[in-house]
Structure formats: structure tokens, C-alpha cells
Write a structure and sequence with these properties.
5-stranded mixed sheet, 2 domains, about 170 residues, Mss4-like_sf, carbon-sulfur lyase activity, 3-stranded antiparallel sheet, alpha+beta
Length: about 170
């Protein structure tokens, strides 16, 4: 007879299995994304949450195209496979203009854009570093990108086109 501990004892195997699955996933992710750290983040109100595997040393783009300039959109780019939306799909809305290739997603409730799909890398995500939770970023290097002359800037830039590739 377990008496008052019966419920806890019966729930134990399920809780232990969930912990084991979580630890195994973290171990597998750490192996798959060697040299990267798991950053988490989201919008201001918390309706949108995500995780992204990226370097602890971030290479940020400061674009001066018409929308990035107005939003002060600074971001780093990762392949879609390294990004996971944890919650808030129903809280996200999208704005597009001009070529409609960039998908400017933001929270319907608080208006914060914590990530988006950049025109330069439609197979990836641009992540707003200021929307990351504290504790996983070691350093930040910021590079200006001349998005106001987008086609020329893309031709001249050596690496930006491939940042969403594995």
C-alpha cells in the first residue's frame, strides 16, 4: 500500500520517461549542431516563442533598405532546419511588399518582429538578436548591408546568399 504517495508513484514512470526523452533530444541536437548553441527568444508579450541553433558569436546584418531602416531591423541568418517555432503560429501575421519574397512576420498582439524570412535567404530565417533570451550570446559583430541598392549589394556580397544553406 502506497497510501498518500500512490498518485506520485503512479505518475513517476511517465515523468521519468519525459525527462529521459528531453535529455536524449538535447544530446542528439548538441551532436547534430556541433559548435552551435541553442538560443531561445520571442516577441514582447510572449505569444510567439522560438528556438534557434546558431553560433554564440553572432554576425548581425544592419540593412538600410526601406523597411529595415524604418524598423531598425538588425538580424542574423540561419537555415530553416535550425529554427523551430515553439508557440504562437496563430499569433503571427505577415507583411510583404515589392517582390513579396521577404516575409516580414510579426506578432499580432504586440507588433514585435522577432524573426522573418529574408529576401536574400528565402530558405532560412532572419533572427532579431534583441529578441533572444539572455545568456547564450558571447559576442556580436555588426555588418552594414546596402539593402537600398539590393541587387548590387547581393552581387557584391561574398557570403550572404548562402547563409541559409546547411
Amino acid at each position: 500500500e502506497l497510501g498518500a504517495q500512490r498518485e506520485r508513484w503512479e505518475a513517476f514512470p511517465e515523468a521519468a520517461e519525459a525527462q529521459l526523452r528531453g535529455r536524449a533530444k538535447l544530446l542528439l541536437d548538441t551532436f547534430e549542431y556541433q559548435g552551435l548553441v541553442k538560443h531561445t527568444g520571442g516577441c514582447h508579450c510572449g505569444a510567439v516563442r522560438f528556438e534557434v541553433w546558431a553560433s554564440a558569436d553572432l554576425h548581425i546584418f544592419d540593412c538600410n533598405c526601406s523597411i529595415c531602416k524604418k524598423k531598425q531591423n538588425k538580424h542574423f541568418i540561419v537555415p530553416a532546419s535550425r529554427f523551430k517555432l515553439l508557440k504562437g503560429a496563430e499569433s503571427i501575421t505577415t507583411y510583404t511588399f515589392n517582390t513579396h519574397k521577404a516575409q516580414h512576420t510579426f506578432c499580432k498582439k504586440c507588433g514585435v518582429q522577432s524573426f522573418y524570412t529574408p529576401r536574400s535567404n528565402p530558405g532560412g530565417f532572419g533572427i532579431a538578436p534583441h529578441c533572444l533570451d539572455e545568456g547564450t550570446v558571447r559576442s556580436v559583430v555588426t555588418e552594414e548591408f546596402n539593402g537600398s541598392d539590393w541587387e548590387k549589394a547581393m552581387k557584391e556580397h561574398k557570403t550572404i546568399k548562402n547563409m541559409s544553406k546547411e
